[in-house]
Amino acid sequence: QVQLVQSGAEVKKPGASVKVSCKASGYTFIDYYIHWVRQAPGQGLEWMGWINPKSGGTNYAQKFQGSVTMTRDTSITTAYMEVSRLKSDDTALYYCARDFLGSFYFWGQGTLVTVSS
Amino acid sequence: EIVLTQSPGTVSLSPGERATLSCRASQSVSRNSLAWYQQKPGHSPSLLIYGASSRATDIPDRFSGSGSGTDFTLTISRLEPEDFAVYYCQQYGSSPRTFGQGTKVEIK
After folding, report:
1. A28 interface with B at CB cutoff 8 Å
2. Which residue of A has its CA nearest to B36?
3. Burial (Cβ within 10 Å: 0-12, 13-18, ≥19) of residue A23
4. Relative to the CA of B44, which of A5, A36, A103, B62 has its CA 20 to 30 Å away?
């Protein structure tokens, strides 16, 4: 069965970086884009971008260009999302999700990133 | 960027009642590339509907999606206790992918 398992919660200081991982299993990793979505506490869902695991190509929402980097390691079927220059309003749950005809069928369990001095 | 506006923000209904949720786009959604997700507290979102009207695998037929262009609807024909949750629409026809702000379906 398809599973996306994310890394554990993080606490970071403002200005630091955080890298979240998303380990995929149960399907051919390079066949489906991985998307990243975040959800601030008590708020809605915000799409951040996607990575094509086959080519490594990426597409970021304009808001996150320059501060977010998505990568992957096909040898261990894992996608990564790094946010740099963290601010307090980057405090959120970060989800990875697997593409399904453009929508997001399979989701990771979420990784809470807390930015606090 | 396509802005999705969901209404109402919150709806209070009883089990067995019908729920009608609206999602309006600021411009036409390409190829009806519109999805609906359900999210319960403490859980990841789950896909209900894609392509505006296709149910995802194992989604009960009390959930149905309709609409095209700029106006879309999610209907829950008879609310079950497990259906009380927040629902989001999302368009994936153009970049950036965008979500609506959500509709909370709460127990009356």
Report:
1. no
2. A103
3. middle
4. B62
